[in-house]
Recover the amino acids of this structure.
């Protein structure tokens, strides 16, 4: 039971069926999003260490409007939040890519499912903002 | 600087252990951050969800490239997982922390017992082809056909959807991927071969954790100063684990892991009951 998200063990033989274009695109999107976000987080962490921040003292709150300014002024918080946004958005971007792929391929049912997943994610955002306020 | 390095090191250990034993880091990250670093449980859960997404993303990319994961089945099921995760994420901010601690302790005991009874995990990747559970299907429904894959036919989709919603709630409430629920339901109940169930679960975990993490992020439940070093550590540990899994004696590691889980469950119980 490889229950949670662990990287796949190398030992078992891989199923070698040729990947379909949509799955290949999504695989690359996930890989790029993951490696990209980890790279941005690493930059932010290095800047955090360089500036002598105490991580257990409580980090800056999430403020979308400040991220751009923090990035421009090379503040660690900007890179950390950007990396975290990419982390959280990567799975959703995979659903967007699926939606586009299924629409192009004429798979209406799967396109509807992808759209509903995005609607649930949008509802999560709406509820979190609404309840936070 | 020392604390950052300790967070990275803790993340590496959690990711390595999780990867070697076929679990995500979530089950270890939450106790590490609460019991080891004294962080509030809600912050630890938020950070854990971030780590779960990172490890899931890398793994799911590989699984999809190899065509082990079933994208259509995963997307159909994750719609319900996402609804469950959204619900769980909202509940987490409403219930007392003590309740979450007791729930987490229960989860740890369950995982410890499951691990203690488990055979060699490496064998599990090869059972699917001969598994009687994968034989047959419900009917000739074209939707079922579309969701099935080479060599197997999914069944009891309705039950699977309900199971997914439950897995989503647990995931967002406790900061885990939820694969502990998803994989058995998919394999035993729905007749999906274990290797495909594992890969598809990994794919779905990203959306499950993401739906929960969004709520934590926007409600101040994710501390970037803790999340970033921990996530980097988990990513490095999981990568290392995936490359060394076949060289390790998993039995010894599993015994150690069970002992750690029981000790952690005891600590968590004490916190919850104090």
């Amino acid at each position: 039971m490889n229950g949670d998200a662990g990287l796949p063990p190398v030992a078992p033989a891989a199923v070698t069926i040729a990947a379909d274009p949509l799955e290949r695109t999504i695989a690359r999107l996930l890989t790029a999003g993951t490696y990209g976000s980890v790279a941005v987080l690493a930059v932010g962490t290095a800047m955090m260490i360089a500036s002598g921040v105490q991580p257990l003292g409580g980090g800056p709150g999430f403020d979308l409007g400040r991220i751009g300014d923090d990035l421009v002024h090379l503040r660690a918080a900007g890179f950390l939040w950007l990396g975290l946004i990419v982390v959280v958005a990567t799975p959703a971007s995979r659903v967007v890519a699926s939606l586009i792929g299924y629409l192009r391929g004429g798979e209406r049912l799967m396109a509807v499912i992808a759209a509903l997943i995005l609607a649930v994610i949008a509802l999560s955002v709406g509820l979190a903002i609404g309840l936070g306020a | 600087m020392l604390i950052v390095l300790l967070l990275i090191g803790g993340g590496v250990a959690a990711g390595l252990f999780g990867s070697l034993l076929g679990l995500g880091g979530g089950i270890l990250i939450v106790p590490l951050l609460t019991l080891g670093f004294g962080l509030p449980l809600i912050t630890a859960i938020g950070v854990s969800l971030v780590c779960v997404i990172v490890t899931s993303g890398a793994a799911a990319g590989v699984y999809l490239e190899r065509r082990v994961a079933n994208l259509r089945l995963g997307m159909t099921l994750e719609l319900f997982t996402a609804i469950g995760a959204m619900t769980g994420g909202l509940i987490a901010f409403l219930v007392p922390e003590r309740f979450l601690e007791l729930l987490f302790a229960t989860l740890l005991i369950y995982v410890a017992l499951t691990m203690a009874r488990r055979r060699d995990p490496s064998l599990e990747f090869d059972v699917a082809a001969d598994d009687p559970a994968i034989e047959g299907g419900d009917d000739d429904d074209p939707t079922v056909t579309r969701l099935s894959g080479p060599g197997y036919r999914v069944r009891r989709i309705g039950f699977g959807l309900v199971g997914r919603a439950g897995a989503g709630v647990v995931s967002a409430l406790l900061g885990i991927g939820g694969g502990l629920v998803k994989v058995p339901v998919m394999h035993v109940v729905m007749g999906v071969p274990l290797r495909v169930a594992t890969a598809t679960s990994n794919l779905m975990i990203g959306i499950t954790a993401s739906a929960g993490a969004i709520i934590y992020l926007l409600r101040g439940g994710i501390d970037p100063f803790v999340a970033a070093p921990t996530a980097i550590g988990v990513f490095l540990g999981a990568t290392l684990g995936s490359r060394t899994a076949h060289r390790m004696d998993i039995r010894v590691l599993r015994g150690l892991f069970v002992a750690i889980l029981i000790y952690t469950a005891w600590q968590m119980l004490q916190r919850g009951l104090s």
About this structure: Chain B touches chain A through 104 residues (CB under 8 Å). Residues 120-137 of chain B have pLDDT under 50 and may be disordered. Chain B is about 75% helix and 0% strand. The two ends of chain B are 33 Å apart (CA to CA).
